[in-house]
Amino acid sequence: MHREDTERLGYNNAEAWRELVRRNVTELAEAQKIDISSLQWYGAFHNTTHHPHMHLSVLRDVLLIVFSLVIPIFTGVTGIFWAAPAADVIAIIITSTVMVRLWKELKVPDENVQESRTALKASRPGPTFP
Length: 130
Known about the structure:
single chain; 2 strands; mainly alpha; elongated
C-alpha cells in the first residue's frame, strides 16, 4: 500500500496491521491450504515512508509437514518422530539469520524510513516469563 492509502484506511501502525491479520487469518490459512488449528503466524511491521507494510511468517508448520513426509522415506516410521525437532532446528536457523540481517539493517540510518518499528507478536498467547 502507498503511504496515502495506509493513512486513509488507518493502517499506519503495527496494531492496525495485527488486527487486520487476526480478522482475516482463517481466509489466509485456507488460501495457503494450512490447517487453521496448526497455524502459528508472526508479523513484522515496517513503517516506511513510501509504503508501510507487514511481513508474515508461517515457516515452522510448513517445514513440519514436509519433514513428516520426507524423513520417513529414509529412516522408516520412526523418522516421523524426528520431523518436529528437525523442523524446529531449521526454523530457528532461518529465523535467526533473518533477524540478524534485520537488526543490522535497522542500525543503518535510512532517509526513506520515517519510523521503523518491528512488532513481532505470536498468534496465540504463550507462556510469560518474569
